[in-house]
Amino acid sequence: MSGLMVKLQHLVKQFGTQTVVQDLSLDIEKGEFLTLLGPSGCGKTTTLRMIAGFEQPTSGEIMLDGQYVHNLAAYQRDVNTVFQSYALFPHLTAYDNVAFGLRVKKVPKQEIEKRVKDALRLVQLEDYARRKPDQLSGGQRQRIAIARALVNNPKVLLLDEPLGALDQKLRKQMQVELKHLQKQLGITFVFVTHDQEEALTMSDRIGVMNQGFLEQVGTPAEIYERPSTKFVAGFIGETNLLHGTVRTRDHQHLLVECEGVQVKAPSANVAENESVTIAIRPEKSVLSLEPSHNEQLVQLNGRLTERIYCGGSTRTIVTLHSGQTFVALEKTDQLLPAAVGDELFVQWQPNHGVVVTR
Amino acid sequence: MRLSLANKLSFLYASLIYLFLYMPIAILILYSFNQSKLNAVWTGFTFDWYLKLMQNTEVLEAMKTSLVVALISTIAATMIGTLAAVGMYRYQFRGKTALDAMLYLPIVIPEIVMGISLLALFSQFEIPLGYLTLIAAHITFSIPFVVVVVRARMAGFDRSIEEAAMDLGATPWGTFIKVTVPIIAPGILASALLAFTLSIDDVIISFFVAGPSSSTLPLKIFSMVKFGVSPEINALSTLMLVVTLFLVIIAERIRMRKN
């Protein structure tokens, strides 16, 4: 299971004067679960639709398993799609929906029967074969849509926010099932979502998109721990962003001046006097009533302005002396004995900060 | 239960409205069973006029013309109108709004204008009046109605269903036949029935474009009326009414059930 499955080269898509996807290049490995993540309107669905063949790229090339396919129509491509709205055929039963692709390809009757049954078993809906889509629940329709796509043994399965219409619990369950299915079948998945948690839990790699640009591609851990742009840092999980100017740098650390305070940050490829942003995750910071004398810690002081109960954890919002708010995460059963308005210190290890320049 | 004055009045009002709407038709139907030749006095019940009608070869001939014209024009108009509706739904192009509006415009063009213009066109190209011109004219005025009905059916149509079919390997034509048509079939059927009743009913346009040998049933009735309204005409009108009503009810039921 290695080698290239999808290669997107300098893809551009314009609708009229609007550029929706800008110079996007991306390699997707065989058997990989790749997620395109971004806010609505970032071009992730358009990118998926170009791979599927529903949209023609304005320029650029799409290679599928070693062959250029960007000039082929959707029905000539060896990929299948699971649509956001499921797009089941309302006039056909679940069985006939799943069999549709095989019948179009004139697969022998016995084989169709076997493969459709296998596909329905795979999504645990053998007993619902005779039902029409409007007699199925949202989750069941979702599974039929997946079975209908998978039964064709596509080289790549494209999923366009397939879990968006499900309730929270079913969604979590389907995330696990989809991930298992993908592992079990070894099919390349390209998954589109705006839900960062979904992306983090399911993907082998994530491509974060914003305003038509692919901002960063990496494993969930890379994306979360080492965001390469301000947008990625802010979009994936919660992040505190401190803006400042590089004052001094050595091979280990940078000293960045943020609103009059010197903040130590890990070394990065930046020049002195360059504007940078330091990103710190809420859970990486510690609150304290007393200043620390540890020179190695970064320390900012401010006032506690709000505490938001989130079950096991509590989000504590501190207004720094610069006026900026800083969010820290505390364990609810180990809250600092402080009330709103109290003076306190926010501390973190310098190498827990991430320096981004754009 | 006692009704208040306001309730009594509104009941009276509603009754009068329905009386106003249906009294003429009720009288027509009633007198088609009247023994007397006069439409004024009720002398007794009879089926004579219906029997007499069945022996009238001219009427039967006109009925045949009507059915042939209606059948052919319905099929043609339904096909053309459906394709137009699907095309207008599916594609975005320059000038679409104007072209779209022009599809519906013939609905509001006065029929007499339509009839005269068609006649002018046919004589311009020296096309002899007869079946051909009659069918062409009926197709012309039916298309907008077909488009309206099919478009309404397409309004709730999820475009991604067609994409799903193509995604699964169906060609555009295969997608249209296996997915689009079955889903919008109730709309197509309803529009066909509507086109059929429009064609069966039409007098004004047919009056201009029918040839001497291709008189339709409404035209035949029209010419018979010139010699006075006989119970025979009442019977014929009743039959037409029943057929038309029957078709409209079927069309409505199909539309309601699927929506």
TrEMBL record, chain A:
Pfam families attached to this UniProt entry: ABC_tran, TOBE_2
Taxonomy, superkingdom: Bacteria
GO molecular function, one term: ABC-type putrescine transporter activity
NCBIfam families according to UniProt: potA
Biological function: Part of the ABC transporter complex PotABCD involved in spermidine/putrescine import. Responsible for energy coupling to the transport system.
Entry's family note: Belongs to the ABC transporter superfamily. Spermidine/putrescine importer (TC 3.A.1.11.1) family.
Protein name: Spermidine/putrescine import ATP-binding protein PotA
From TrEMBL, chain B:
The keyword Membrane is assigned to this record: yes
Topological relation to the membrane, as annotated: Multi-pass membrane protein
Any one cellular-component term (Gene Ontology): plasma membrane
Transmembrane segments: 12-33, 67-89, 101-123, 129-150, 188-213, 233-251
One Pfam family from the record: BPD_transp_1
Keywords annotated in UniProt: Cell membrane, Membrane, Transmembrane, Transmembrane helix, Transport
Domain of life: Bacteria
Localization terms from the record: Cell membrane
Assigned protein family: Belongs to the binding-protein-dependent transport system permease family. CysTW subfamily.
Protein name: ABC transporter permease subunit
Organism: Brevibacillus panacihumi
